[in-house]
Write a structure and sequence with these properties.
- By secondary structure, the protein is an alpha/beta fold.
- Helix content is 44%, strand content 15%.
- The longest helix has 22 residues.
Length: 275
């Protein structure tokens, strides 16, 4: 297993500061959150991509997953409004090509959230149609789409392993694969074993602690999740992918390097990481 830092924790400082912190901590894998002010497809995308690519190469770093912002900005692939929904699909396609330009072959997506005035079945169909479109582009370009279940506070569609399995079986695309977010998983009363028992493959993993009641994404040991047991489960199933520390919250944003360094130190103590 590999551990990755994520620039979402550094969202209130320049991107260069994030990379300098990763170098200081000794992490050369990152999950790139594509949101302002670091990288956003609707603002100077080519210039920003070139700058990020140059900085990454100078530090011999690798982007293991590209994650467009999709929970704040006005994009929703499950929206009932057909124009908004297509605009959202186009947004993800633009991000997919940005990911390729940054020399990574994995992009994270979610199901979006269904309008509360229509049935879940109708919203599911909208999300499924959108994901199908994205999968076809991903197949053509050789990109893996990591489909992440959201928490029950963020979506009314895919929030657990069963919903994830249903969407994967419905789309039937070799480019669409499942992943785990430990906060969403715990809120659904699940463990990694629930995912491994029903999915053929797990392509990505968000490792964070949580309070067990909300969608808070905490630094390791700041919450109540059995994250050490989760890593043991990944080991037993020979997971060889990346574990990203997706730490979020105002307290962490003020001193992101310290939050990330402490969590990575706790993982290193377990001796589960590859060199």
């Amino acid at each position: 297993m590999k551990v990755a830092g994520m620039n979402i924790t550094f969202r209130h400082v320049p991107f260069q500061h994030f990379l300098e912190s990763m170098s200081y901590i000794g992490v050369d894998h990152i999950e790139l959150w594509a949101g302002e002010p670091h990288l956003y497809v609707n603002r100077n995308i080519l210039g920003n991509i070139r700058n990020i690519r140059k900085q990454m190469k100078s530090r011999e770093m690798k982007i293991v997953c590209y994650t467009p912002e999709q929970c704040i900005y006005p994009y929703n692939i499950a929206a009932s409004d057909s124009h908004w929904r297509q605009k959202s699909v186009d947004y993800f396609i633009e991000n997919l090509y940005a990911a390729l330009e940054l020399e990574t072959d994995m992009m994270l997506i979610t199901s979006g959230i269904g309008d509360f005035t229509v049935s879940q079945e109708e919203s599911w169909k909208y999300a499924s149609d959108s994901i199908f479109q994205l999968s076809k582009v991903a197949e053509r370009e050789g990109v893996t789409l990591a489909l992440e279940p959201l928490t029950k506070f963020e979506s009314n569609l895919i929030t657990d392993s069963k919903g994830l399995k249903n969407m994967l079986e419905e789309i039937q695309s070799p480019s669409l694969k499942g992943m785990i977010d430990t906060v969403s998983m715990q809120l659904a009363n699940e463990t990694p074993e629930d995912y491994f028992s029903i999915l053929a493959e797990l392509c990505h993993f968000h490792l964070i602690d949580g309070d067990g009641q909300s969608d808070a994404h905490l630094a390791l040991d700041d919450g109540v999740l059995n994250w050490r047991e989760y890593l043991t489960s990944l080991q037993s199933h020979r997971y060889e992918g990346t574990c990203t520390l997706e730490i979020m919250g105002f307290n962490y944003y003020q001193n992101p390097q310290d939050a990330l360094m402490k969590s990575i130190g706790k993982i290193r103590e377990l001796g589960v990481l590859s060199s």
